């Protein structure tokens, strides 16, 4: 080795620890499963899109309640947290390569925006990628925020949104004596029944503006709050520095606050059956959901430190490395199974059977992801997305 080939230790940038990368990838795969189980409800029961749940048997009600309590409003928070965490890693990696980090981030968000539009207009109206792209611009502007400022911003956003929704729900409860909100919802749903009865593509095109507004202005601020939590966690190297004792404390607090909120949310969304009740459930989920999400994260991180947990992490991580491919594939599978794109089974599959189908599809995704990632460095869509982000020819190896 010549003198010019000798590495200079002081110039070497520290690479992320492999364990941290595996933890993040495994958590991302876990988030994909939770999001899948929530999204499938809108295919199994298309009336949910217009706030009209179809009647089912007692077991179906239990499945829907458990899904609402355990998964709904929890896993998009986890995915958002990981998005904020990964943003810091992307920023650091781009800086080490000498790239224009702002330009790289902007191209990344533009790519997400375009993919999100296609996803929402062609596959699933509840797309989250457009929201991530737009909220990502705020995260980019606030990238130099301190850990304390990022945490404070997250807390303020969450509390303001949660209390605001609870106040609105309380006001609607008070007005129920002289205003029939259920009739208003039914009237709105009646005006949209033609969309439900027509081709799925017409439903997507007709519902997308309303759904996008709901995602942007209701879910968006909550997702942005979790972006800032992820930003603060990555800057403080939370995963690397968290001790077992600290993780256990967070787990206990998360369960103590999150579980009662989850039970209340599940009951209100399935059994209460009114617009004010659903709003009240969303307010509770906004305030308590982050605690249960934190419990999920800490429980998994603790599990990953054991021998069996390390095997679970290794099984999940490949799917997390190609999360974009798997997320869009899940929507494609749901559209093919439940709409006139394919089998058109929407409204004819029991909620419990739908959960089993999701688990089977996810198991297949784990197997395919492991097969793919043993041969390639990045997933099918990830290779194209990276090429656009860094403005270079696609490469998967």
What does this entry look like structurally?
This protein is an all-alpha fold and 397 residues long. The protein has one domain (21-390). 77% of the residues lie in helices and 0% in strands. Helix 3 packs across helix 8, helix 10 packs antiparallel against helix 11 and helix 11 crosses helix 12. The chain is globular and about 60 Å long. Mean pLDDT is 85; it is low at 1-19.
Write down the overall mean pLDDT: 85
Residue windows where pLDDT falls under 50 for at least 5 positions: 1-19
- Total tally of structural domains: 1
Shape: globular
Question: How many H/I helices?
Answer: 15
Q: Spell the H/E element sequence.
A: HHHHHHHHHHHHHHH
| Count of strand segments | 0
Q: Hey, roughly how much beta strand do the residues contain?
A: under 5%
CA-to-CA gap between the ends?
27 Å
Largest sheet: none
Radius of gyration: 22 Å
What structural category characterises the helix and strand content? mainly alpha
Helix content: over 70%
